[in-house]
């Protein structure tokens, strides 16, 4: 029941947030923030705190950490540098942008070891020296139940590293090319699709090859997911960047308020068959090119 929808998560409170110039070249979802850098940082922090409170009100256990460094503008998106897995496994990932490599912090890993059953930590980050990147559950959308890793090919998802991860963590890789209307590669898979326990949100039309499009759809249907097809417009509104968790009274889907507003009533009806929707209003944070799912690192580990 909770394998895909964790009860506990890690989130990083930003103190010097701003859209990162280093990541803008390959992130078409990124935009310039309005106001001074201090104003942007303050507003992002307020959005973060409101989001954390809403998740806690829904019954999610949120382990929040402060990031006070002025060298890590994207630290609010921790799902890119580590992930956790049933059986006590943790992965640490190599990042594409040099500024993002500074986001890794061992106090988070120590918290996991202290409060949860961690058997091993596999650290791939040294492969940054070879200019290889695999940006966690941004680059990979994981079906923890069906054991499939869905991956849009990009410079943030090295194919050799993907194979190594899937071998180590027992996932089947399904990789594909995905591009927007301007022919730009989708920089992270998790803006393109969300896999929940009973449904999947996915922009199938942005997968360029028809046979791979069919493979993705067929595998989702085979694993008993209702497939909710998203348009490219909805992807631009961050409809695909949602995350399922377990709350006090059942499963919830956290999605940005912007994304929820762009969903069709029929799509919302399908989602609400199995989860309660919890909208989070984070327009300032979204200027960095990521949304709700990017902010949340799920803890798929047993409590001590």
UniProtKB/TrEMBL annotation:
Residues 15-35 are annotated as: Disordered. InterPro entries: Amdntrnsf_FN0238 (IPR014541). It comes from the Bacteria. Signal peptide: none annotated. Transmembrane segments: none annotated. NCBIfam families: citrull_CtlX. This is Amidinotransferase. It comes from Paramylibacter ulvae.
């Amino acid at each position: 029941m909770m394998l895909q929808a964790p009860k506990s998560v890690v989130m990083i409170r930003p103190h010097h947030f701003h859209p990162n110039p280093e990541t803008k070249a390959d992130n078409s979802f990124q935009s310039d923030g309005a106001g001074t850098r201090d104003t942007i940082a303050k507003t992002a922090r307020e959005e973060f705190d409101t989001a954390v409170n809403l998740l806690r009100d829904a019954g999610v256990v949120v382990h929040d950490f402060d990031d006070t460094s002025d060298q890590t503008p994207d630290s609010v998106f921790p799902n890119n540098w580590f992930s956790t897995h049933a059986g006590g496994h943790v992965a640490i990932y190599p990042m594409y942008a040099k500024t993002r490599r500074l986001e890794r912090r061992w106090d988070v890993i120590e918290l996991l070891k202290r409060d949860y059953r961690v058997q091993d930590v596999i650290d791939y980050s040294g492969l940054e020296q070879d200019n290889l990147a695999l940006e966690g559950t941004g680059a990979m959308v994981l079906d923890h139940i069906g054991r499939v890793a869905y991956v849009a090919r990009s410079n943030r998802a090295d194919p050799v590293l993907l194979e190594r991860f899937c071998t180590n963590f027992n996932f089947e890789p399904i990789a594909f090319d995905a591009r927007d209307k301007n022919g730009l590669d989708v920089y992270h898979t998790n803006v393109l699709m969300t896999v929940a326990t009973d449904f999947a949100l996915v922009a199938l039309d942005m997968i360029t090859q028809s046979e791979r499009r069919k493979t993705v759809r067929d595998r989702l249907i085979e694993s008993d997911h209702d497939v909710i097809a998203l348009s490219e417009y909805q992807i631009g509104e961050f409809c695909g960047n949602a995350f399922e968790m377990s709350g006090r009274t059942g499963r919830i889907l956290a999605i940005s308020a912007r994304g929820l507003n762009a969903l069709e009533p029929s799509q919302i009806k399908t989602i609400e068959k199995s989860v309660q929707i919890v909208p989070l209003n984070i327009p300032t944070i979204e200027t960095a090119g990521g949304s709700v799912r990017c902010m949340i690192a799920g803890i798929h580990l047993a409590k001590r």
